[in-house]
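User: Second chain of the day. Same drill as before.
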Amino acid sequence: MSLKLEKLENSMAKLTIEVSADELDKAIEKAYEKQKKNISIPGFRKGKVPKAMVEKMYGKEVFYEDAANILIPDAYEKAYDECEEDIVSTPEIAVVQLEAGKPFIFTATVALKPEIKLGKYKGVKVAKLDNTVTDEEVMAEIEKERENSARTISVDREVKDKDEVLLDFEGFVDGVAFEGGKGENYPLTIGSGAFIPGFEDQLKGVKKGEDVEVKVTFPEDYHAEDLKGKEAVFKCKVNEIKEKQLPELDDEFAAEVSEYETFAEYKEATKKNLQDKKELDNKNKKEDEVIEAIVKASEIEIPAAMLDTQKRQMVNDFAQNLQAQGLSMEQYMNFTGLTAEKLLEQVEPNAKKRIESRLVLEAVVKAENIEITDDDYAKELERMAESYKMELDKIKELVTEDAAKQIKEDLAISKAVDFVVSNAKEA
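Assistant: Same format as last time:
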């Protein structure tokens, strides 16, 4: 395999990759072996048609596409490893020459990591954040736990705010029932905002067993095209009304929801937890503010292909998280009314921010000659072993050369973050 690199405008490059004629011939043979069991020509048993006969019948090009698909992944991977430039996008492949007996030539158009002009990164001014936790915040947190510990009981009265009702409903537009507008014994908490604006308010005052007509207008941005902006009538019946009974804020409550025996101890522990959380949140806010200021002071041009790759990676990560929760991306898009294009559009600001932040921090690493020592790396492996609950030796076995390089780069970025934050000035 041979590689030529041509730099283009806007941090793009074209890799011209050449694979020997011998390798192409072998790939064509592999393509034939893979397909022959499905090839049927009169006079030959299925799967026994000679390659020369197939090529005579359908042309020599019959196996070219499969052969190219066999060669391109490995050839591109070798070119990627051989290339001295930092490639930061998925390749756009184009075949240049594909003919038996001749070298196979294709191009891969990619984005290269852009050069940036680093702006001011020392002494960045940031707002001073208050880590104080008020008694009101503590009680609000305790109230959340109190709500979670509440029990619900059926009541025989009119529906009030915060009640949970079991509801039968069917929606009609212009007197015609519409798809997805019907439910039976649906649990709805009044005031939750789970239904169309105005729906829940019209159930207040209704008694158990009563029928009521609820009139609403679907929002203009509603996900179902045929319902946007339409007036609808829901015929409803309240089957059951439940109200929450909140526990008393006493020692018994504290013992039930925590490891503490008294309410005073539980309240103090809640304050400590909130304090730790606020300090961590403010630390993260300060980091974000400092990095954002450095990005604004720097000159960065992100190649479109690099941004597109980052967007798709973020969507793929999101899809994997959904899958871990037992939900497919298709189901998610059906529920939300989003399309793949809309999802990519939604993640673009965060994708851009992620790239810009990484680029400026890499520039800080370079400007300050930040290095990762063997001790830094060893401590990180120990942290990983503890986090994954694995033996350290096993972690070392699993970490490849490329993974080790990535770990060290990430550690350097963390040091760069610590450096710019410690040098920031609070206003």
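The first strand starts at residue 2 and ends at 7.

User: Great, on to the next one.
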